[in-house]
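> call design_seq(struct)
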């Protein structure tokens, strides 16, 4: 029996399409029908995933106490110089924005985020990378920027990110 590369196994298990960003595929007009508790619970889950791939911060997980004020008062700084800078307010509606270097993007990270989003079709995670952006939804990943042009799979995204700034401009698909 032949052994497969890990990213190929992930590719087979991840049922998300990878396409270029468009407003039709990335609806910004969804109403914000969530509470502070729902948004921060979602953000806390995103932090759990990201922490397996690097440091997260600057703010850590928000404690879910009786009131927003009590939770804010107990909220602690996690890491001021983190690998993943996770925005700590819901400016992006039903999305959590994460800023990071593209080299931190791994197939399993994308798969785990997509799995988190599986029961949440109106939610997303936006990875703001230095070379472009990735909007991750439960069933699709939308890429922004010339850096990702031509990518059509999770494996393509990973290989493009792994090349970083030093690699040649490779053709995907």
């Amino acid at each position: 029996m032949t052994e497969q590369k890990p990213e190929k196994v992930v590719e087979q298990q991840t049922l998300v399409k990878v396409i270029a960003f468009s407003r039709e595929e990335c609806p910004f007009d969804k109403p914000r029908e969530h509470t502070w508790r729902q948004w921060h619970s979602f953000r806390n889950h995103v932090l759990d995933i990201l922490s397996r791939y690097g440091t997260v911060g600057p703010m850590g997980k928000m404690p879910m106490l009786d009131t927003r004020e009590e939770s804010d008062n107990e909220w602690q700084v996690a890491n001021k110089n983190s690998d993943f800078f996770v925005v700590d307010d819901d400016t992006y509606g039903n999305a959590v924005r994460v800023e990071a270097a593209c080299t931190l993007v791994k197939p399993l990270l994308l798969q785990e985020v997509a799995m988190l989003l599986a029961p949440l079709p109106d939610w997303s995670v936006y990875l703001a990378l230095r070379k472009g952006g990735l909007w991750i939804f439960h069933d699709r990943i939308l890429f922004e920027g010339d850096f990702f042009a031509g990518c059509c799979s999770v494996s393509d995204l990973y290989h493009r990110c792994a090349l970083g700034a030093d690699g040649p401009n490779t053709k995907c698909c």
